[in-house]
Amino acid sequence: MNTAPSPLHDLFADAFARYLAVRPTGLQMPHGPIVSSLRARLLLCRPARTLYENRHPTCRSLDGIQSLTEGRACASCLLRKTCTPQIYLELLADGVPYRLILAYSSARNFMLFVSRLRQQSQPVENAEVILSVRDRGRWGELRFISPPSQPPASPVADHQGCH
Q: What's the pLDDT tens digit per position in 130-158?
């Protein structure tokens, strides 16, 4: 999967993307309801890191290389070992771009999904995916599945002479 987006992609993503939140009962849509599942196209995935203090994020990197909040390189940060490794996704659902940061069990499920796609020789970039949430009590765990293949469209009957 391409992990080096273009400057145009970055501009589009920064201007319009909305963050999804994983709740035990589903995906919290920005300024909207919680949905039990979401069908989307996977635009981008890459490593991410978040530093938590008292369960609140204090520093974040959406590429695992450069901090968004501190503006410094993650490799030279003295707190790097205390950061939580994550996976950052950019998705497109119903024409709307969304961002999602995956915690450990959801990241593990995503990597299994990527592995299944690769075993089937399917590209990860632009892959269709259905996201659903498994209720784990105090937290939600994302599951990723490929949507069923669409049957080929039936040929259109030739209606010449029918008026």
A: 999 999 998 899 999 998 876 555 555 44
